[in-house]
Amino acid sequence: MHTKVKTMKMLLGGEWVDGEDTFEVRNPQNNELIALVPRASKNEMVNAIEKADETYRKLESWPTHERIKVLNNVVDYMRDHKEEFAQIIASEGSKTITEARGEVKRATQTIQISAEEARRINGQTINFDQNEGSEDRVGYYYRFPVGVVAAITPFNDPLNLVAHKIGPAIASGNAIVLKPASVTPLSALKLAEAFVEAGLPKGLLSVIPGSGKEIGDTLVTHPVIKMVSFTGGSEAGERITHIAGVKKVSMELGSNSPVIVLKDADLDDAAASCVSGAFSAVGQNCIGVQRIYVEKELYPSFLDAFIHLAEQLKVGDKMDASTDIGPMINEREAIRVENWVEEAIEEGAVLAIGGKRDGAYYAPTVLTDVPSHARIAQEEIFGPVVIMEAVGNLEEAVEKANNVNYGLHAGIFTNDIQKAFYSIKHMDVGGIMINDSSDYRIDEMPFGGMKNSGIGREGIRFAIESMTEQKVVCFKLKL
Ligand code: NAP
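Above: the input record for the complex with NAP. Below: its predicted structure, written as tokens.
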């Protein structure tokens, strides 16, 4: 069946407009053209930023109860159009329809939580009299919005990661200009439609598609932008951090997450959790399981159980609700993964299963005996590949897990509380899951990494903290 190609507009300063140019959005499963989307120019980006600033200044005292109302209206819209959102995610991206439906549910919740958190943006009184000479002062601090937030998002959760930027920004009274990933801009534009329908004042939100390399610098360096919230790869993140200038920066970057499985672990539970954590979204997941360190006594049976479960995953048509694994985001990415696997094999790694590519599809793959210096052991594969290694004890596992330049999430399977606490204390990560894989997250928790995995934390309440500043108020009294 041939889908009708849609010609999209972008939301610029509250108006739906065409761009000076367009780019194509294609379904990665069959390369079918599904939409033509505005490819914004630098001028159009500047225009959106200036409109955001103008609107923010006009609406600086836009009351909290109205923000809550708009966010709740968005939630209603998303619930009413949930299947439409899921179809968009599954057709422009590489998620299966089942994964896409799950993402819509989470994104709706992200906006719902944003509405709830808007009520709780509070300050505190300050006891100035703790300092000698300040006995006659009273005061407090409160939080105020930074002004205009710049947001840039990746392809792998094209709706929920956009919701994680727009929800907290609007909840905390900011204006926001968002640039979605060029391969998956349609989910972001649909969410923009939800905000328009929900009654968001015109100009507070712009969704500007276009090439990150062409218009990214314009967005992040503009002096009106007071905070840059970026989710994506470490390379772009590092560049943005260098050029942004004196502004707040939040960086949600990549990782190659480790999971440790100790000999006292529940084998079936650990294997099932690791298989799901490694291969959901075809491994294109910032907290996906990439490296598994198993205590040597359990290693042979864990490897067998893992392979047995991985081989049962159904690879196929992503629109079929029974499919577990769809295509990667495009063939170029699948070829990159194929090259990394072949490179590791040339360096001595052993292919346990997988290693096959068919267009944009790459089979679930397990490698053993991977040299620690191999690219696949050090960098983020961002594909359906896991490396598995036997270790002598927990200390060795932790040392190996830490021996990379990333630190987002980790998991450990053990029933020994001392060992769990050892790993909590010694693992260099932003989140550690005990008896779960690294792939566990709820949208409310502080989420972010160490080292090259980023700066700052998301999770609605924590994103609101980074999108607001404290203002101190102090009264000198004559009582
Ligand atoms: P990416 O290539 O870094 O792209 C992410 C976004 O940055 C896209 O919108 C892209 O625009 C834009 N961009 C690229 N170069 C830029 C530049 N020089 N200046 C400004 N913007 C630029 O990442 P991706 O392939 O879409 O996503 C995968 C990565 O995101 C992985 O590393 C993954 O781990 C990470 N990620 C992290 C989290 C987290 O919360 N920690 C969550 C999800 C994903 P174009 O699309 O136009 O190139």
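Notes for the reader.
The radius of gyration is 23 Å.
The pocket of NAP is lined by residues 152-156, 161, 179, 181-182, 211-213, 216, 231-233, 236, 239-240, 252-254, 286, 380, 382, 408, 454 (CB under 6 Å).
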